[in-house]
Amino acid sequence: PESPPPPYSRLSPNDEQKPLDLSDSTLSYTETEATNSPNVTPGDFSDASTSPDAVKRSHWCNVAYWEHRTRVGRLYTVYEQSVSIFYDLPQGNGFCLGQLNLENRSETVRRTRSKIGYGILLSKEPDGVWAYNRSEHPIFVNSPTLDIPNCRTLIVRKVMPGYSIKVFDYEKSCLLQHMADLDYADGPYDPNSVRISFAKGWGPCYSRQFITSCPCWLEILLSNNR
Known about the structure:
The protein is mainly β. Helix content is 10%, strand content 28%. It has a domain at 59-180 and 187-220: Tumour Suppressor Smad4 (Sandwich), CATH 2.60.200. The protein has helices at 52-56, 107-116, 170-177, and strands at 17-19, 61-67, 70-78, 82-86, 95-96, 120-125, 128-133, 139-142, 157-159, 163-169, 193-198, 217-222. It is globular and about 45 Å long. One of its GO terms (biological process) is BMP signaling pathway. Keywords: Transcription, Transcription regulation.
């Protein structure tokens, strides 16, 4: 079809990364979790998450924002199927990283924060969790289901602007749960955690060996509830 269904086209020849169609209303995408963002006064938004139906739903992930080794702000809990995580997004509600204050930020962090822009759209779908790069710079992703089984090398995937990637595969995760935990050199291993850095990569192919060396990055803590 001429207009593939948002947020990505399944007609993409690349099954792993799919182009994001920005021609529709994705840039004006709004979230109902706006009041979870720090420094936002309740009542400024119409927050559907406070409705009785929403209260009954359990969250499917928490998002932590880090600058190098410092976590900035509180955990952002996600109840809706999709959430925007951004620095500056016109008409966009969700997890606004630009509102998180921290004293004595380094110039490197300031420059990287300015590159986050529209950020990412994180979406829970039947086959797994997808991240859609809406910024003008690449993002870098690592997760248990993107790694090669029994491989000692950390796998970090680079996702260019306008493309999406399945950052977590539910079916593959279930298979990996039966395998012995791997001893990762860069910290504790969480089988339900996804790490995403903005603009700067890390791992064997980059000068930064550990994600804690990246100026701005996210930790997606997935709930066991599917």
